[in-house]
Amino acid sequence: MTKRKGYRDWRWQALWWHHFFLLWITIDGQTRYSITEELKQGSVVGNLAKDLGLGLSDIFDRKLRVASEAGEQYFNVDAGKGELVVNDRIDREALCGQSASCVLPLQVVIEDPLQLHRIEVEIRDINDNSPSFLSNELSLNIAESAAVGTRFPLESATDPDTSPWLILACLWSHWEVFSVCV
């Protein structure tokens, strides 16, 4: 009976190690790229074939394709070079709103044998929208006795690239010369 139990333990351990190595092979590190918003169509994000360890012939033979989890196809694979390229203009504010981070998850599907890779593309913000105020003009009455460096709060400005912020005007001299402080 002890021999039989030891035999079963050995088979159990072998099966466990077999499954462990199968999982080890199928679980790859996640690939992550970072780009700025509003890149031109055809701009290169990264070399997908190289990062996934594929040859250029594998792209055709194994029918590599990219599927977006966001619904719209913002990216495509250049089969000749193995590069992930921008397929359509990406507006970060329209896609992620005021969120601090904007990440687009993608699924890379490779056939024969079937492999799935999850990659992420982080969309970084560029300052493409200027702040705007409710009124175009502002009148300040400043006494001649105001000290140099005195600050005067202005109305709030809104910026579609960031959350609303307050701009302060700095009095650099008593001759009413201002500069914008952030």
Explain the layout of strands and helices.
Elements: H1 2-26, E1 31-36, E2 44-47, H2 48-52, H3 56-61, E3 65-68, E4 75-78, E5 83-86, H4 92-96, E6 103-110, E7 115-124, E8 151-157, E9 165-173, E10 177-181
Parallel strand pairs: 1-7
Antiparallel strand pairs: 2-5, 3-6, 4-5, 6-7, 8-9, 9-10
Subcellular location: Membrane
Keywords: Calcium, Cell adhesion, Glycoprotein, Membrane, Repeat, Transmembrane, Transmembrane helix
Protein name: Cadherin domain-containing protein
Describe the overall structure:
The protein is of the alpha+beta class and about 180 residues long. It has a domain at about 30-125: Cadherins (Immunoglobulin-like, Sandwich), CATH 2.60.40.60. The protein contains 4 helices and 10 strands; from the N terminus they run αββααβββαβββββ. The chain has helices at about 1-25, 50, 55-60, 90-95; strands at about 30-35, 45, 65-70, 75-80, 85, 105-110, 115-125, 150-155, 165-175, 175-180. The chain starts with a helix and ends with a strand.
Short description:
It contains four helices and ten strands, in the order αββααβββαβββββ. With about 180 residues, the protein is an alpha+beta fold. It has a domain of about 100 residues: Cadherins (Immunoglobulin-like, Sandwich), CATH 2.60.40.
Order of helices and strands: HEEHHEEEHEEEEE
Rg for CA atoms? 28 Å
Strand count, sense and closure of the main sheet?
4 strands, mixed
**CATH fold assignment of the domain at 28-124:** Immunoglobulin-like
Mean pLDDT over the residues: 76
- Considering DSSP H and I runs of 4 or more, what fraction of the residues is helical? 10-25%
CATH architecture descriptor name of the domain at 28-124: Sandwich
| Rough outline | elongated
Query: First CA to last CA: what distance?
Result: 80 Å
User: Uncertain runs with pLDDT below 50, 5 residues or more?
Assistant: 163-182
Structural class: alpha+beta
Number of separate strands: 10
CATH superfamily of the domain at 28-124: Cadherins
- CATH class descriptor of the domain at 28-124: Mainly Beta
| Order of strands in the sheet with most strands | 1-7-6-3
Beta-strand proportion = 25-35%
Number of helices, counting only DSSP H or I runs of 4 residues or more = 4
Organism: Stegastes partitus (bicolor damselfish)
GO biological process, one term: homophilic cell adhesion via plasma membrane adhesion molecules
GO molecular function, one term: calcium ion binding
GO cellular component, one term: plasma membrane
